[in-house]
Write a structure and sequence with these properties.
Helix content: 10-25%
Mean pLDDT: 89
Oligomer: single chain
Structural class: alpha+beta
Low-confidence stretches: none
Length: about 210
């Protein structure tokens, strides 16, 4: 399993953002932030599919409202929050969610979930929230799941249909901007120490 992410602030700081127009797929957004999220997400997916998985012309389609490859050659899931766009790629279906851990009306959301925790703790809330969102994106029964803090104030959740323990084979990469106007993006492998307080569960064995 591989995770790739883009820090949009860093990536677009010195870039000509007009290149994003090539990844709009005919869509338009009134909100500039939403436009950037969508276009960077499509750029990330296509860049990784081309460079890492050697799929020359990846055709991304919507299946049950989820971006997918038409022939399921590689499975992926996409998430974005604040200035982070992130995707997970794997040989089997997976769902990913990343959230900045900001203050919310936690009590109202727990009522929606029909849960009444003894104590509302922000990090625990986001562990549950990212797992919930990742499960929705998986769109099938989860066999393994993983949650961890990342980038100091973000929470990451992954659910997979694979029985393998997620953390054991996980790799994380950041896509960095070109160094100049004629250059190409580069990829930097990140240490797993980027993940704090990881929690792993395998339902087939735990």
């Amino acid at each position: 399993m591989e995770i790739y992410f883009i820090n949009s602030d860093k990536f677009l700081e010195n870039a000509d953002s007009t290149f994003l127009d090539d990844y709009m797929e005919g869509r338009s957004f009134k909100c500039e932030k939403r436009r950037i999220e969508f276009a960077l997400g499509r750029f990330l997916l296509k860049y990784v599919l081309k460079t890492r998985f050697k799929i020359e012309n990846p055709q991304i389609v919507l299946k049950n409202k989820k971006p997918s490859l038409e022939n399921d050659e590689v499975f992926f899931s996409l998430s974005h929050t604040k200035n982070i766009v992130m995707a997970v790629f794997d040989k089997k279906p997976a769902g990913i969610d990343i959230e900045v851990m900001k203050e919310r009306n936690f009590e109202m959301i727990y009522r929606f979930w029909k849960k009444t925790p003894e104590k509302i703790e922000k990090k625990e809330f986001y562990r549950q929230w990212t797992e919930y969102e990742a499960t929705v994106k998986l769109q099938q029964k989860q066999v393994s799941k993983f949650k961890a803090e990342i980038f100091e104030d973000f929470m990451l959740g992954i659910c997979s249909s694979d029985s393998a323990e997620i953390l054991s084979g996980l790799e994380i990469f950041e896509i960095l901007p070109p160094e100049n106007a004629t250059g190409a993006p580069s990829v930097n492998k990140c240490p797993l120490s980027l993940l704090k307080n990881p929690r792993v569960c395998n339902f087939s064995g735990n």
